[in-house]
Structures are given as C-alpha cells and as structure tokens.
Write a structure and sequence with these properties.
about 130 residues, six-stranded antiparallel β-sheet, about 20% strand
C-alpha cells in the first residue's frame, strides 16, 4: 500500500501559455475601438486605456485602474485637469502611466463610470479602494 501521493500534497502545475493569456483594455466612452457587453474597450494598451483586466498564468485575473499623480483613481472627464501637479519635478519626472491593482468590485464600478461618465460610479470605486 502506497501512502505517498504527491498529487494530494502539491498542486499540479496548470499554467497557461504566455500567448493565450486574456487581456482587456477599457477606455472612456467615445474613445472606444470596440464595445463588448456594453463597455468601451481598446484593442491595444495605449495612453487612452484607463483600466485593464489581465489574466495571470495560473488562470486568475488581475484588475488594474489608472491613478492620478495624487494617488486617487484617474478621472478622465475632470473639468479642472486632475493631473495638474504642484512641483516642477512632478511635472517633468513622474510618469502618468501608473496603474494600481484593485479588487473586482472597485474595478466593476470604475468601468461603469467609464461607460456612463457618471461620477457616482467613480466615487463608489474610490471608497472601495480606500
């Protein structure tokens, strides 16, 4: 009788090949290249992408939202230009391409904001992230 069964102890290595990983890029309504399930999306990752859903090699997903220089979720419909910074170094040296990983609930509210431009969805997402 064999008591040693490595499949019971260790998880089988079930990884997805790099070229089969799903990537979804979300943008503001009006800037989309395609619309999937009512949400505006881009085909490539570019400067008009505000949220990303990336599949990891283990099959799970990573939800990411673009952040402003002050660390808050980025508001692309801001009237006053949320990306305005106070110091010379912030304007010159800091990249605007920062994304933060969030939970699925905050991500869902943020892409609702992107598709509707309703600030209530953005505020809900910000509360979930804080």
């Amino acid at each position: 009788m064999d008591f040693h069964q490595p499949n019971n102890i260790y998880k089988d290595d079930q990884t997805i090949p790099e070229d089969n990983l799903e990537q979804e890029f979300y943008t503001l309504s009006g800037l989309e290249e395609i619309i999937v399930n009512g949400f505006p999306r881009r085909l490539q990752n570019d400067n008009q992408v505000y949220a990303k859903k990336l599949q990891k090699r283990d099959g799970s997903f990573k939800h990411m939202i673009k952040t402003a220089n002050d660390g808050k979720l980025y508001n692309p419909v801001s009237v006053y230009g949320q990306e305005k910074t106070n110091t010379f170094l912030d304007r010159i040296c800091k990249s605007n391409d920062k994304f933060t990983t969030v939970n699925e609930k905050a991500f869902g509210w943020y892409i609702q904001f992107l598709s509707s431009k309703n600030l209530a969805w953005l505020h809900n997402a910000e509360r979930e992230v804080d």
